[in-house]
TrEMBL record, chains A, B:
Keywords: DNA-binding. It comes from Ruegeria marina. GO terms for molecular function: DNA binding; DNA-binding transcription factor activity. One of its GO terms (biological process) is response to stress. It comes from the Bacteria. This is DNA-binding transcriptional regulator, MarR family. Residues 19-152 form the HTH marR-type domain. It holds the Pfam family MarR_2. InterPro entries: HTH_MarR-typ, MarR/SlyA-like, WH-like_DNA-bd_sf, WH_DNA-bd_sf.
Amino acid sequence: MSQNDIARIAEPQPELQLQQFLTYRLSRVQAKLNAQASRVLREHAGITLTQWRILALIGVEGLRRSADLSRHAALDKGMVSRNIKLLVAEGLVVAEGDDSDQRAQTLGLTGKGRQLVERTLPIMRKRQNLLRGALDAGELAVLYRALDKLELAAEAQDFD
Amino acid sequence: MSQNDIARIAEPQPELQLQQFLTYRLSRVQAKLNAQASRVLREHAGITLTQWRILALIGVEGLRRSADLSRHAALDKGMVSRNIKLLVAEGLVVAEGDDSDQRAQTLGLTGKGRQLVERTLPIMRKRQNLLRGALDAGELAVLYRALDKLELAAEAQDFD
DNA sequence: ATAAATTGGTTGACCCGTCAACTATAATGT
DNA sequence: ACATTATAGTTGACGGGTCAACCAATTTAT
């Protein structure tokens, strides 16, 4: 306790680091993936990642209702609502009333929106392939399995 | 195009889903890990995850300066600053001027802060072990490798 | 038929994390 | 020695994401 006179409760814990390291790694990788996609989309299409997802869900997956988007892509419905409004204002999306359900609105792409998706799809696919190419099939399988297990463990409520 | 008359730009793309699925999975797992830790800390110690990290870095790792915390745990320095202020206000941390560097302050735990860390450490270790037990060594290794590769791929700037 | 519960969508509030600007002090270069 | 550059820490602002309240319309149960 002479030179290094720091009040410690316990010796540094590699275990503690591991846990924090894990969530740290996960959030970091995810942040970088998002940042990369966001950059491309901003430069190439002038939209955000969320907006791209919405456009792709409408234009590629053929979904037509906000609620479907939320469910399909686990997007918050509030966020979908706000972004739809933006996309409509920018003339990329049309939202017209649905006859069969007065609450709902039917979503679709405008010509401009369709053009933008068509123009953007190839580059996003390219990126896709880059990412996919980074992992071999075995790694991908283990990654998914590990994430499943972690997610399950993270749901435990009764370990205390 | 009869019954399912939806204007699509392309057929639904499993590849697109994969990418979004990947970031979706990552963010989801991470969110759950955070939520779990946050819940435990809130119920058990009345602090947030960030605050716990700070307390542990001071009390367990023995760090004494804000800047060291930021570097060590990749926490934003602004966030550290604000949280330190809260922790001081709650009487868990002391921050006194540093003689050798007028800009810096020396951080330490109060008795109350030390007690709280001592009380909270065991349960966080328990959680730690739960998570660690969820993956075998091989899975953990592949997980790390896969995250490394993905992170690298996510840093590529010139794929377009 | 009508009350209750569910669903679609909008809006406001809030937290977390990041970034930028700024002040004060220290270290470095010439 | 003095000007430049780097560092410690504070603060304000912003975007992404979650949550809750709310309205209108629709489905379900009794």
